[in-house]
Amino acid sequence: MNANAAAAPDRDGAALQRALAALESVVLGKPRQVRLCLTCLLARGHLLIEDIPGVGKTTLAHALARVLGLAWQRVQFTSDLLPADIIGVSIFDRASQQFKFRQGPIFTQLLLADEVNRASPRTQSALLEAMEERQVSVDVTTHRLPEPFFVVATQNPQEQLGTFPLPESQLDRFLMRVMLGYPDAAHERELLRTGDRRDLIPGLEPVLGPEAVIRAQQLVRTTHVSEPLLDYAQALIARTRDRSDLKLGLSPRAGQGLIRCAQAWARLAGRSAVLPEDVQAVLPAVVAHRLERRDAGQFDSPGSGARGNTAEELIRTVPVPT
Amino acid sequence: MSAARAAAQTSRSPLLWSCAASAAAILLHAVQVSVWITLTALGLIGWRLAAAIGAARLPGGALRITLGLALVAGVFAQFHTLNGLVPGTAMLMLMIAIKLLETRTRRDQYVVIGGALFLLLAACLYGQALLWMPLYGAQALLCCSALAVVAYEPAMDEGYFPAPAGLRTREVIALAGRTLLYAMPLAIPLFLFFPRLPGHFWALPAGNDAMTGLGDTLTPGSITRLTSSYAIAFRARFEGRPPPPAERYWRGPVLHEFDGATWTAGRYTPIGVQRLECLSTPYRYRIYLEPTFRHWWLALDTVMRAPSADVRYTDDDQLIAAQPVSQPLNYHAISCTQTRSSAPLFFAARLADTQLAAAPNPRTRAFAVQLRRRAGSDVAYVQAALTFLHTGGFSYSLTPPPLGSDPVDDFLFNTRTGFCGHYASAFVDMMRAGGVPARVVTGYLGGQWNPYDHTLIVRQSDAHAWAEVWLDGRGWTRVDPTAVVEPERLYRGILDLLPNAVSTPARLLHAWPWLSSALERWDALNGWWNERVIGFNYRSQLDLLGALGLRSPELRDAGWVFGAALLAWLAWISWQLRQGTGAAPPDRLGRAYAKLCRKLARAGLQRPPHQGPLAYAQTITRYRPDLAAQVRPLLQHYADLRFGPPSPPTSDRDLRTFERAVARLSVRRGAG
Question: Does residue A64 form part of some domain?
Fold first, then answer.
């Protein structure tokens, strides 16, 4: 049995590749970030896109929703946004003489939470609880959220005035944090020439559908994880805990997320077993927002060479199992 | 071509660092080799840098080989050999620079930096003075930093995702500094306890321009070269009080033969030691001699016996060593400033030391014969000659006019201006013309007291020449004709006497007291360095071991055991590093994979420990596309076996297939 032969002979495998191609045609010059976003969703995780305005965060989120063929909603977070504005409210219906729950925008398959750090902590935590539980409790009734359910949140690390930065415990709810950064010269020229990329989104074919996404998520879980690979992941996690320059090491939940992402990454590359390279590929996006250096602020400036430095150092200092 | 493009895409930082390290190593030797070698080497480095920014093309293989052969020929043409310290250094400088032109992989950079480190070692053979140590330290730090940059350069790994930035400069220097510090606990015991070979292990044949200090000839005029040098000749530390200034005559080469212009040692054959009676309290002291690349050991006039088995005590009271003094050395000596020898002078010695110069100098001869006849005795004759010098209108000058074809005549009856060399030479010639055995002694007169380490510092500017005459019943007696002309010379150095004689910087140093005080401190520090660090030899090591209570006769064996233990310790560390931290011993698949990686590493494609098999395959495809077809399937196979789902029925066969494929693989090194 050949683990790395172009596996996933089924339609979904091919559809995933088509979805990737479609996304890359809209978000120019960011193949790695696009692949990471898709990986995150296939690993059933929520995604935080962090960067300055105007680099294509929202375009990427739109394109994701469109290509995956999911129902989606967008909420612009502001400081006066209330939990009910997201979750929904119970309204007294005169006709039936009872309270009726009106669903908020969260009842969708893909929720785009724009500038999540502008909302008050109360609203943030309502959203994040819903993300974790995949359900919403209003009054005494519990409403399940649809399947699949993703949150793609964006935030701008530069403008800190009037924002409520997400605390570490909340950041942990996001499986990945992806930064886009400036495009390179060639792609920037292409962007300048072609104008708004958002115009292209309506023209995108939905490649997958909710069922196909769920099937792909199930397929990801079957990706083989060998004992040597678990050794490697454990060594990486252990290293974060004995490093003196980090405030906190990685949690077991982060470790689980790392493996799940590596599985999804391997599947996207058409393989049915996880290699150390897969772990290395997803590691910066999975751990960078969970590790805080003692000497530096949590947010590295976008587009700088220092981005993900801790994660890169981590990779460089842990030998792969042989 | 594709490989060149791939190299251009990698970060330039490792290249910059290795260029800096090799350029610094080359500059360390700039004084030793010809200018063209330094300039060529630096030019080649400049070429490599220009190629890195795209301003020039790197030379092809044929051009590189031609260039290399041409440079070897150039070095050979200059030195007529490739053997020896200076030609070897020159070769290494040029070859490192050429090697830079073909650096592509990490391994190439290691080779270049290794060469730079070797040049640093060679620099230590040229000069071990304390003054150089900060420079050597900085160069060691630079080389280690370059190693760190190359080792940690992620762009050279060709990872699975865009390479992150490498270490920052501050981090690199901190890492290198830390590494050097970590090496100290190993370096210091090695320095102290690693068995030192008795004798001069490092004594290499010195180049011509390395000659300093006294020569083995005296041409009145040649000593000016010494006096303008403020360099230290040696230091002396006395047990008890040092001798008074008028007795600070330090004996060097003794010259017997005169051709009318130049004094040489001549064919004087030692006959036997004249027994000396000591008339004063003997001085006991230790001399710290700077390298002279000559055979003489200096000592206070007159030394009573040879200070070491390595030196011969000649019958004209010189100390002549078998090996030239190529590194700082120190020795203990006992001297008497006033001696007497009552035995008669051997016939052969009398003959040699009354030999007249071939050049006629007729006026001197006639004058001497007349003076001798009038004096009546040898002692009175010596006195009369000195009186003549004292009253004859002679003056002391370091820039005397040139002398004619009868130099002694010209000096004594015409110019009457000169310095120690002229006076000693003329005086001895007069003595011989009058039938009195006489010889010229060269050496140093004086010494500056350094209050910080209680030593007398004798500099090259203290060089001096005087005469010795044989007086029956007293033996060889020192007569310093210069002291008659310029009595101050006994008490003051040339520096004070003739301020214009020495170079301006040296004079300025003496113009301000605080500066000379600082200079004295620096001298004291230098003395400590030469005595304790450079002068730490076999004997000092035995002393140290003795002080630690190890007096066993098998001291050497103990040293070897210590060395072996250190080597074992190093081997253990490197084995540990290879193993990684607490990793299990490799299984069959792991061993086969390690073998594969070793084969590829030998071809310059080393796998960084954190690189997975497929990323490794990508690197190989990028640098050596010719290998991709062979190596890719192997690495793929390994990835399947190691990380793929287990499939028991076939796995053993698969493993054997993999092992055989690894065994069959043969990788050629570097393709264009």
Answer: yes
Instruction: Return the SS3 of B573.
Output: helix
Tell me which of A16-30, A294-308, B48-62 is least confident.
A294-308
pLDDT of residue B142: 94
> Mean pLDDT over residues A63-89, rounded?
87
Q: Select, from the ranges A251-265, B174-188, B407-421, B532-546, the one with the highest average predicted confidence (pLDDT).
A: A251-265
Q: Do B594 and A322 lie within an 8 Å CB cutoff?
A: yes
In order of B29, B33, B149, B246, the CA distances from B87 in angstroms are 12, 8, 31, 46
Which pLDDT score, from 0 to 100, does residue B579 have?
A: 62
Q: Does B612 touch chain A (CB under 8 A)?
A: yes
**For A170-205, how does the pLDDT look when each residue is reduced to its tens digit (9 = 90+)?**
788 899 998 888 888 888 888 888 877 777 778 788
Dihedral of CA atoms B309, B313, B318, B320 in degrees, nearest 10, equals -40
Tell whether the model's pLDDT for residue B321 goes beyond 50.
Answer: yes
Per-residue pLDDT tens digits for B627-664: 888 889 889 889 888 888 876 656 678 888 888 888 88
* Two tokens, residue B422: 């002229």
Output the DSSP codes for A110-167: EEEEETGGGS-HHHHHHHHHHHHHSEEEETTEEEEPPSS-EEEEEE-SS--TT--PPP
Residue B131: pLDDT over 70: yes
User: Touching check for A226 and chain B: CB below 8 Å?
Assistant: yes
CB of A272 within 8 Å of a chain B CB? The answer is yes
Distance CA A121, CA B423 (A): 101
Residues on chain A touching B594 (C-beta within 8 angstroms): 322
Of 3.40.640.10, 3.10.620.30, 3.40.1570.10, 3.30.450.40, the CATH number of B217-515 is 3.10.620.30
3-state secondary structure of B467: strand
Q: Does A6 map to a domain?
A: no
Whether B644 sits inside 8 A of A224 (CB atoms) is yes
**Average model confidence (pLDDT) across chain B:** 80
Which candidate in B591, B593, B634, B643 is best for mutational testing of the A interface (most A CBs within 10 A)? B643
pLDDT, mean of residues B504-531:
74
Cis peptide before B302 (omega within 30 of 0): yes
Give the domain CATH number at A116.
3.40.50.300
pLDDT, residue B159, reads 39
- Say how many CB pairs under 8 Å bridge A and B: 87
Residue A141 has pLDDT above 70, yes or no: yes
Of A4, A277, A312, the CB nearest to B612: A277
For CATH 3.10.620.30, the residue range(s) in chain B are 217-515
- Asked whether residue A115 is domain-assigned, the answer is yes
The CA-atom distances, in angstroms, between B539 and each of B130, B208, B221, B239, B414 are 22, 30, 41, 20, 55
Tell me how close the Cα of A321 comes to any Cα of chain B, in angstroms: 8
Q: How far apart are CA A227 and CA A2, in angstroms?
A: 17
DSSP for residue B658: H
Instruction: Give phi and psi for B336, each to the nearest 5.
Output: -115, 130
- List chain A residues with CB under 8 Å of B160: 277, 280-281
Residue ranges making up the domain that contains A126: 11-317
Q: Is residue A23 assigned to a domain?
A: yes
Please give the C-alpha separations between residue B403 and each of A98, B440, B477, in angstroms, as whole numbers. 133, 19, 29
Which residue among A2, A226, A275 places its CB closest to the CB of B612? A275
pLDDT of residue B307: 85
From residue B453, how far is each of B140, B299, B450, B509, B531 by CA, in Å?
31, 19, 6, 20, 12
CB contact under 8 A, B643 and A273: yes
CA distance A181 to chain B (A): 13
**Do residue B643 and residue A322 have CB atoms under 8 angstroms apart?**
no
Given an 8 Å threshold on Cβ–Cβ distance, is A305 in contact with B162?
A: no
Q: Are B628 and B621 in contact (CB under 8 A)?
A: yes
